[in-house]
Amino acid sequence: MKTLVKIEDLNVYYPVNSGIWNTNKEYIHALNNISLDIKKGEILGLVGESGCGKSTLGKAILRLVDSQGKIEYEEENILDFKASELKDFRKKSQMIFQNPYSSLDPRMTIYKILREPLVVHGIRDKKEIDNRINEIIELTGLNREDLKRYPHEFSGGQRQRIAIARALILKPDFLVADEPVSALDVSIQAQIITLLKDLKEKLNLTILFISHDLGVVKYLCDRIAVMYLGDIVELADSKSLFEETKHPYTKALISAVPSIHKKQTQEIKLEGDLPSPKNPPKGCRFNTRCAQVQEICSQKEPAITKISNSHCVRCFLYE
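and the corresponding structure tokens:
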């Protein structure tokens, strides 16, 4: 499979002011030397606890936050793009945000919300705009009558369909879906997940699907990357990740997935809280909560170990 997005040694720092007069400069290290490939035509899942850097990685790939390192899209480093190149890149890559209640402008009708990206990117012919809008609302399960209405007149599931329609109106190749179903009821979640799967096949999309729900990710994604405190600790195809789990953190996440076939004693409970990204632990970032911790874990960072062609892990247990 051809690589669409190639990330190398990506770092993101968020400055935080502290002290009486906000004179002390501190930094939250949100992403720590991330390297990752996203293959053309796949759905790559990105999972981990809240605050581990999943959304930051999605935004960094689309250049919505500043980062250092290398992000190649179709073999071009987007961090070097000038304004005109970046605008062209925006047509090819779009984002679905987590909260459909805050990501849509309440003062605009659905027609104007869908028209706006087209106008911004130079499509001003009314007939072409109407054709594109009619095509996308049909694909996303909306009605033409909906175009005259405002976001507050819709349910959460319908709003997320509108957000998906807006993301797809420019016919992008790459989509970052940042927890697109976490704010929705379970029954509506299933509809949106099925919609994304259908759209991926119909439009030949490549999707980075960010979630904390391993059940959803297992069903939807071809490969899964597990993130902990700004590091990717395990990457594998969906089947291998669940059947041949390697990293102690991944084992704990999977053990917490509810199942009627699982005994309560099988759950691996993580001790302690997620450390602060302002002051991460030395060595392996998971060493403060790991049940299989060794002396070396607090001394240096583990390298990435290849288990198979489709499975790698960052852990001293496998070096």
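(Above: one complete record from the training split.) The mean pLDDT is 91.
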